Amino acid sequence: MKFETTLFYKSLGFLCVFCASVVNGFALDREAFTFTNYDLKVQVEPEQHRLGVRGTITLRNDTQTPQKIAVLQVSSSLDWRSVRAGDKAVQFVTQPYASDIDHTGGLSEAIVTLPQAVAPQGTIELEIAYEGTITLDATRLTRIDTPVEAASSTDWDQISPGFTAVRGVGNVAWYPIATEVANLSEGNSLFEVLGRWRARESASRMHLHISVSRDDGEAPQLLVVNQASCQVLYEAMGRSSVTSADCTYQPLGLRAPLFVLGTYGTVDRPSIRVYNLTTHAASAEVYAEATEKVVPLVTDWFGAPREKAQTADLADHDAAAFESGALLLTPISSDNSKQAGLAAAHQLTHAAFSSFRPWIEEGLAHFAQALYVEHERGRPAAIEYMGLHRFALGEIEATSTVPRSEDEANRSLVNTTSEELYRSKAMYVWWMLRDMVGEAALKKAIAAYRPEQDKEPSYMQRLIAAQTQRDLEWFFDDWVYRDRGLPDFKVESAFPRKTMSGSFMLTITVDNLGSAGAEVPVIVKFKGGEIAKRIEVHAKDKAVIRVELPTEPQEIVVNDGSVPESNTTNNTFKIEATDK
Ligand SMILES: [Zn+2]
Questions:
Q1: Number of Cβ within a 10 Å radius of residue 261
Q2: 385 Cα: distance to centroid of ligand 1 (angstroms)
Q3: Per-residue pLDDT tens for 461-514?
Q4: Domain-by-domain residue ranges, the chain?
Q5: If you measure from the C-alpha of residue 350 to the centroid of ligand 1, how many angstroms do you get, rounded to a whole number?
């Protein structure tokens, strides 16, 4: 809210008539309306780099007060042509609005005066038209000093005769949105704005009719959309061809509708279709085979895939990969195909399971990757794999040394817009839950999940609680509903005692100096072997465990790396040899 007024007036300088007639002293609430339905006809002309859109959108007033003004935003490279309500043209003014939610670093805003105020929870349908070009543009990154090459390998969206890829909100606003300003130079601002938009739109519906026409005599390119149930048609007549796709996203969930057009070959298998550039045909085969091999593991955990996973090749071999739902856009090279099983575990999980809550949707997909590594190479390898994520997690947790209570709520897994948290931290949370309640119970809880019944943040906890006797409230409080940082375990003391039978009884006190509790493995090493036990240690608390050993204990290690910790330098405890 605090940016709104300053930026608003800055961009207003050139258009002052508008201050008096429309704004009239009160600030615009750009996020007042949720777009509950889109019905769009999208015309793409690759030779002209052109996009033209007509259709209807339905807006619902989600504020407590009647709204007379609606804001519609598209990429700054597109222009508004008309806005109508109930067959009548409505008054609207357009202005540029600087925001990094679009690759161009700006939006074309239509500020629409509605025919009548829309009551709270009321809706209005608008007929809209806009058009323009979409070319490679990494302004939002280059203006914050990202080197040009890196910037265009990240913001690779464009419409062009050779290759077209247009991602949705967050990359290219090619369908209307309404958001407050996002600024890449201000911390997490872009992800916060994007997170709010996605949460508002997660129950919305979008119907798209995309049609691509070419008159240059070239064969039609393959059209890839992040909705496997799309109906795609190819028609050619003489030198002209039309490719069209009819797609419905219902609900949108966390997906931002996107389309890609490429001169692709395909490798089609029961669970995946790979769209590859002709030079990458061999790698595409490897990729598809590797994916099929992961299907049983993913099915066992998350159910059978409900849609076919899709992978589409990107020509720039440095291009940053991008995922949306079960579609992965990535350069398919022989290098990447070695990692295909790992990528497939993630992608197939999205194809099998979906939630509009990022910590569940993405957390489970990353958890599936750790399960895949464990399945292939064992638990230590999986923990090592998760440790690669922990670096990012350690950094982000370290910046919040003393979490304030509002941070605890904002940065909690149920609310966060930070990818490190809803990807890396959530992955660990699922792994810890599996260690705590067991594989069978967790699988049953996941199988019982119904996105339409997920009305409150505690829904998942209740599904898991139904499968176990354990109290999990404290765990969800520390890790999911609040961000209490990470635990910090330390063996406070260890007392070995020789028993009558000649074995050793070791009494270990584990201290948790951190503000988040966890159940952590304790490994006791002795001459000839080791024994691992698990112990629940709550935040800022201690717990005691007794371990019986065949010979004298030598060393205790708390945590095998499966619980993320803020400090791991204090995890080993040497036991002094007792006098013989
Ligand atoms: Zn994902």
A1: 25
A2: 17
A3: 999 999 999 999 999 999 999 999 999 999 999 999 999 999 999 999 999 999
A4: 2-262, 358-481, 489-574
A5: 7
Residues 43, 56: Cα–Cα separation, whole Å: 15
What is 489-574's CATH topology?
Immunoglobulin-like (2.60.40)
Between the CA of 249 and the centroid of ligand 1 the distance, in Å, is: 18
* Pick from 273, 277, 279: nearest CA to 314: 277
**What is the C-alpha to C-alpha distance for residues 437 and 465, in angstroms, rounded to an integer?**
9
Residues less than 5 Å from ion ligand 1, measured at CB: 323, 362, 365
- Tell me the β-bridge partners of 457: none
DSSP state of 451: G
* Cα 24 to ligand 1 centroid, rounded to whole Å: 44
Q: What is the pLDDT of residues 42-77, one digit of tens each?
A: 999 999 999 999 999 999 999 999 999 999 999 999
Residue labelled with tokens 């062009």 = 160
How far is the C-alpha of 126 from the C-alpha of 85, rounded, in Å?
Answer: 5
Say yes or no: do domains 2-262 and 489-574 share a fold: yes
Q: What is the pTM of this model?
A: 0.90
Give me the sign of the Cα torsion angle 10, 15, 16, 22: negative
Nearest to 223 by CA among 154, 175, 275: 275
320 Cα–ligand 1 center, Å:
14
Q: What's the CA-to-centroid distance between 409 and ligand 1, angstroms?
A: 23
What is the spatial order of strands in the sheet that 259-262 belongs to? 164-166, 259-262, 222-225
2-262: CATH topology is Immunoglobulin-like (2.60.40)
Q: CB–CB of 422/359 below 8 Å?
A: yes
Strands (E) located in 181-308: 205-214, 222-225, 231-237, 240-249, 259-262, 264-268, 272-277
Instruction: Sort 579 into a burial class: Cβ within 10 Å, 0-12 / 13-18 / 19+.
Output: exposed
